[in-house]
Amino acid sequence: MDILAFGVQADERPLIEKAFEGLHDVRCLDVFLNEDTVPIAAGYEAISTSVNADLSRSVLQTLAVGGTQLIAQRSTGFNNIDLDVAERLGLTVARVSYYSPYSVAEFAWTLAMAVNRRIVRASNRTRDFDFRLDGLMGRDLRGRTVGVLGTGKIGEAFTRIAHGFGMNLLGWDVAENPACVELGMKYVEKDELLASADVVSLHVPLLPSTHHVIDRAALRRMKDDAILVNSSRGGLVDTEALVGELRAGRLAGVGLDVYEAEAGLFFLDKSLEVVSDDTLARLVTFPNVVVTSHQAYYTEEAVGQIVAATVENVAAYAAGRRTGNVLVPRG
Predict the structure, then answer these.
(1) Measured torsion, CA atoms of residues 222, 246, 119, 274, in degrees rounded to the nearest 10
(2) Which residues are the active-site residues?
(3) pLDDT given at position 275
(4) Run of H or E residues at 201
(5) Enclosing domain of residue 170
(6) Who has the most CB within 10 Å: 160, 215, 236, 286?
(7) Are 230 and 236 in contact (CB under 8 A)?
(8) Coiled coil: which residue ranges (predicted)?
(9) What's the pLDDT tens digit per position in 20-67?
(10) Is the model's pLDDT at 331 over the cut of 70?
(11) Are residues 218 and 286 in the same domain?
């Protein structure tokens, strides 16, 4: 079976090609799937996509007309896929339900530490041989309070690191994680968590119920000197409201690995273009904000697991098997 993989990063390509070697023929493209690129998929029974692919109704319809039967997404998130339309069209959709939670949890703490200790500003200064310490003072984390919104696998890994720092642990989720409780986490209502935490980190999926879970009201409940970290999904944070609070001088720092309008920007080189997204352009000008381009998952271990799961999803489809990764079963 021929497979077309969209949105493949340079580091991913040899891993994907090696994983499929001797099993199926795979063609890797660095372009992302959208309305402009979907005609390329004509004739391919199976395609593989990244989290920033556009799998809306029109794209899915074009895929179905072109003969595509399987969509194997290389991510845990699937909010970019119209599953109802896919089911009506008879398309099988699978995702990666699990990969190393440590990749994201460790990166979330990397962002928190970077903004707390002013690492980016310090690095930029020393490149100019400016070795002053003015404006670089951070805070000890030991004894401070961290609020974790979402205590699944990634949230638990994040909490374990916080426990190692000697922090007080607050959690918010639909159900308590016994492992986090054992570490000393106290589950509270979201408003109490936001008002009490020195560091707030988001690890919930993007659902209608969690869209803008950090809105203007939530931001105003947070401490003026709190740190906000989002390494989950951009739509969890109302970015315009966040910019407004930052302009008012609130929050000690913000670390973002995701952005709600990242499609068409993240994973691409826009350095020679004028970026028309005024909100993002304003956001990256704040000295206490660090923005990275959805790279928290990007470790050898996590990407290797993602590729292996994708190969298994294709193999299961070819064999007529259904796995726990299937979002829309074979019709």
Answers:
(1) 140
(2) 233, 262, 294
(3) 86
(4) strand 199-202
(5) 101-291
(6) 236
(7) yes
(8) none
(9) 999 999 999 999 999 999 999 999 999 999 988 999 999 999 999 999
(10) no
(11) yes
